[in-house]
Amino acid sequence: MAIGKTSTNVPVLRWGFLGAGNIATDFANDLIKAPQYHKHQHALVAVATQNSRERAAAFAERYKNENSSPKAYGSYEELLQDNNVDIVYISNHHPQHYGTVKLALHAGKGVLCEKPLTINYPESLELVKLAREKKVFFAEGFWIRFFPIVKKAQQLLHEERVCGKNLRLFIDFCQDSKFRELPKDSRMLNVSLGAGVLLDMGVYPLTWSQVLLFDDPINQKNDPTVSSNALTFTDHNGDVGDYSTAVTLVFPKSQAIAVLCTSMDRDPVTQDFLRIDGDSGAQLIISGKCFRPQILTLKRPDGKSETMDFSFDATGFFYEQDAVFEYIMNDLNEASEIPHAETLRMMRLTDQIRHQLKISYPADIQFTTN
Ligand SMILES: NC(=O)C1=CN([C@@H]2O[C@H](COP(=O)(O)OP(=O)(O)OC[C@H]3O[C@@H](n4cnc5c(N)ncnc54)[C@H](OP(=O)(O)O)[C@@H]3O)[C@@H](O)[C@H]2O)C=CC1
Ligand SMILES: O=C1OC[C@@H](O)[C@H](O)[C@H]1O
């Protein structure tokens, strides 16, 4: 895969955006307006929306400066013909990810796609096969996997075994999306646009359970047994989505257990969203937001505690953005923080949970009837 060069011959990764919505704004702000956090050079060279060049131009205008002048396109197809684009960042709605990623891969572009990669496992499997056939960089943008705080928590738990064995993980991720008050075509309320707490927010607690318990060496990569239940809503089309979902995971090999609750109808009463303990009597607590962890506190059995501050004031995409730069610079097509197999395993897990919840999406029908 190609990578650009600045006028002083410094490598620069040239991004094209497919989607100009809310998270695209946060991603662009970190990419272009937080250079103090970057190790590498990045440029936003093109922005496309599905149907409006004007909307793309208005988005691009916000990121014009002496080094960056993004081109605006009124369709994804036009942007994908732009040879100045090294990699595309896809940030439309979950049900659109499958078709949009497919379009970009067929155009020979590297792809970083927002989470969840797709609505279900069959869609993700098809995209992984296509990306490997095209021999381009491809990853699900599960950005917290690139945070140093995750790597530190894994080192404390898996190498230093500060909590011992028989780990118990508790996560409460809640955020009041006020979904019932939103317009009926909001992505948080319209099931056809992917509404539902599991795939939008629940994938974060599930990711924490994977990096802290599934990846624990004593688990030896054994899948957990899963049980789940949910409170649901019905949208204006009569489709059912989940708004508060509880999942328990048991890891028989390591005798570990995870209790995860994700709700999109209330805000948290504490910043401590994650607690883990084991048979050592110590506790690890992570504070901040489940999707933006900032502080790690280790409480030792003797009552002493140690706090590690990983806070930053940008959104936090810069870790992921610099990692993608390094993979493409080194001609690597997968991110070790979230290899294709890990995305596929997570999609199988969310499919398994949705089957238990009896929650389905239009995309599921496409694959079950084929
Ligand atoms: N990593 C993170 O922290 C976060 C990730 N996300 C993920 O990003 C994705 C987008 O979320 P968010 O930015 O909040 O979404 P937005 O509601 O801002 O919409 C994003 C894009 O989706 C397309 N879109 C919007 N409404 C419609 C519609 N009614 N019909 C068809 N397409 C539409 C548009 O694409 P276009 O501009 O091309 O026309 C729009 O720009 C989701 O998959 C979500 O999971 C969301 C929030 C945080
Ligand atoms: O990925 C996300 O993280 C933060 C939440 O507010 C958002 O709904 C979700 O898509």
TrEMBL record:
Record-annotated Gfo/Idh/MocA-like oxidoreductase N-terminal domain positions: 13-141
The species this protein was found in: Schizosaccharomyces osmophilus
Keywords of the record: Oxidoreductase
Key word Oxidoreductase present: yes
Catalytic reaction annotation: D-xylose + NADP(+) = D-xylono-1,5-lactone + NADPH + H(+)
UniProt-listed InterPro entries: Gfo/Idh/MocA-like_OxRdtase_N, Gfo/Idh/MocA_domain, NAD(P)-bd_dom_sf
EC number(s) reported in the record: 1.1.1.179
Name of the featured protein: D-xylose 1-dehydrogenase (NADP(+), D-xylono-1,5-lactone-forming)
Family per similarity comment: Belongs to the Gfo/Idh/MocA family.
SUPFAM superfamilies recorded: Glyceraldehyde-3-phosphate dehydrogenase-like, C-terminal domain (SSF55347), NAD(P)-binding Rossmann-fold domains (SSF51735)
